[in-house]
Design goal:
By secondary structure, the protein is mainly β. It has a domain at about 15-75: Urease, subunit C, domain 1, CATH 2.30.40.10. It is about 10% helix and about 25% strand. Strands 1, 2, 3, 4 and 5 form a five-stranded mixed sheet that branches. The longest helix is centred in the first third of the chain and has 12 residues, at about 1-15. The radius of gyration is 22 Å and the shape is elongated. About 10% of the residues are buried.
Length: about 120
């Protein structure tokens, strides 16, 4: 009974997220259409959907501005399978100690100092 009352109270007081429009500006935009990346490009997102991307895109009035100067922006590009960022998970212990794999050499997401995603390489 208490759980049901609490659930009803939470549902009654919850409000949906307000519609939001934001623009990511000055980024290097890779649209994923086979074309060259757009330097100084803009991506506009309205209510969770990409509505415009590229160069010369107008920023709607009242939109939140996010400056991505010098950063890559990849609107709509989602990696269906990627281990990127997971190479460091559970690498602190050896397999003998019950930990995960300790050798990521040669993997596409090698984050070692000489790997393709290293800041040093």
């Amino acid at each position: 009974m208490i759980r049901r009352a609490l659930a009803l109270l939470l549902l009654a007081t919850s409000t949906p997220a307000a519609p939001q429009t934001f623009a990511i500006v000055n980024g290097i935009v890779a649209k994923g259409d086979g074309g060259e990346p757009v330097q100084g490009g803009t991506v506009v997102v309205r209510n969770g959907r990409i509505v415009a991307a590229g160069s010369g895109v107008a920023v709607p009035p009242g939109a939140q501005i996010i400056d991505a100067a010098g950063k890559w922006v990849t609107p709509g590009i989602v990696a269906g399978f990627s281990r990127l960022g997971l190479a460091d998970v559970d690498l602190g212990t050896s397999a003998e100690e019950g930990g995960g794999a300790t050798d990521t050499a040669g993997s596409a997401d090698d984050t070692s100092q000489t790997g393709p995603f290293s800041a040093m390489g």
